[in-house]
Design goal:
The chain is built from 10 helices and 21 strands. The protein is α/β, with parallel strands linked by helices.
Length: about 375
């Protein structure tokens, strides 16, 4: 089988900072990076393309009019849409649902994994599943349907045998959930706290048992008060990892800035729904109907219900609206998420890592996307 060699030139975000040079792909891996160090201040002032690690999104419900929970080829179609916006790998994220609905979604994701392993390309690599429920608190459903239940290891492991679960979101104040955190982490799962009415003390206890992150920080959790710090306060005080939705609707920019100062490896997710990449209108989110209007996605009662955000827009929001340095923003779009789930060969441009990259112009608009060395068609569209 022939191996395709690709050379990208421009301002390359290498492990030690930007270089003015090139990165070479040898098939699916990065073969070399060469160049002269360059101050980041010059990167967006120059005329050369900017090459960053491909984006990694650990919280994706849908896109292109398709919802992960519908099964069939939805995960592949969702992965294709998000790849066109710079996402090179993702976790397909489920909704709280009856057992039979989860079974159908997991069976479809198992087929998606088989097609990836057989060499099918054209979208982001689906690295596994983010199981966002059903092990959550009914008091903090957000846009989740009301099928919450305590965590049952036999159910979770049966699903995991169908398609690999990489992240589990749970509400730790539910005794059965708290009691299983240590077993989950010992088995290799990453546990995040979310959709929770729990207290600061519940969060600290869960972190001590092995939980490692927080799901869509500030949303669907108890907020920060100076005499009752809540889940959000525990995240700010103790977390190394947490995900945040930088669409500027889910979280006020001031709260994002507070989280950036407090949480070393805060990383970005889209929490995107079927409405991502689509016009305004009516879409599905699990068993719920949601509505896209004015760049937001909501239930009929106005509750935010995921987003229509894509990762290329998330990058622009971090840099242009929040003022992050481009290198720092890139780590929060790629490296920290990869590290959180143990994907050390993704989320960085380094020799031997997967050849996942985005090429941008000085305004941070996408020019090209590469997933494991393969160019994504129409990457700059939409």
């Amino acid at each position: 089988m022939s191996v395709t060699t690709t050379m990208l030139r421009g301002y390359i975000l290498a492990p030690d900072g930007f270089v003015d040079g090139s990165v070479a792909f040898d098939g699916a891996r990065i073969a070399s990076i060469a160049g002269t160090p360059v101050d980041e201040g010059r990167v967006r002032d120059g005329s050369q393309p900017i090459v960053l690690p491909g984006f990694i999104d650990l919280h994706v419900h849908g896109g292109a009019g398709r919802d992960i929970m519908e099964g069939g080829d939805a995960a592949l179609r969702v992965a294709a849409l998000h790849a066109r916006h710079g996402t090179t790998s993702l976790l397909a994220t489920t909704m709280t649902a009856p057992q039979e609905d989860l079974d159908a979604a997991f069976a479809a994701m198992a087929e998606c994994a088989r097609r990836h392993e057989a060499g099918e390309r054209g979208g982001a690599r689906v690295l596994g599943v983010h199981l966002e429920g059903p092990y959550i608190n009914t008091a903090k459903l957000g846009a989740q349907p009301d099928f919450a239940r305590p965590l049952a290891m036999d159910e979770l492991m049966r699903l995991h045998r169908m398609a690999p679960i990489r992240l589990v979101t749970l509400a730790p104040e539910i005794p059965e959930n708290m009691d299983t955190i240590a077993a989950l982490t010992e088995a290799g799962f990453r546990v995040q706290l979310g959709h929770t009415a729990g207290s600061y003390e519940d969060a600290v206890a869960a972190l001590q048992k092995g939980a490692t992150g927080f799901t869509h920080l500030f949303n669907a959790m108890t907020g920060l008060h100076h005499r009752a710090p809540g889940m959000a306060g525990a995240a700010l005080a103790h977390a190394r990892y947490a995900e945040i939705i930088p669409d500027l609707l889910h979280v006020h920019p001031g709260a994002i800035r507070a989280a950036l100062r407090a949480i070393p490896c805060l990383y970005c997710v889209t929490d995107s729904t079927a409405a991502a990449g689509m016009p305004e209108g009516e879409y599905r989110l699990g068993q719920n109907t949601v509505y896209k209007c004015m760049n937001g996605v909501r239930l009929a009662d106005g509750t935010l219900a995921g987003s229509s955000l894509t990762m290329d827009q998330a990058l622009r929001n971090l840099v242009d609206a929040l003022g992050l340095d481009l290198a720092d923003a890139s780590r929060r779009m790629s490296t920290h998420a990869a590290d959180h789930i143990g994907e050390t060969a993704r989320g960085r441009l380094a020799v031997g890592a997967f050849a996942d990259a985005v090429v941008l112009d000085r305004d941070l608009n996408l020019l090209d996307v590469y997933v494991e060395g393969v160019a994504i068609e129409h990457a700059h569209a939409g």
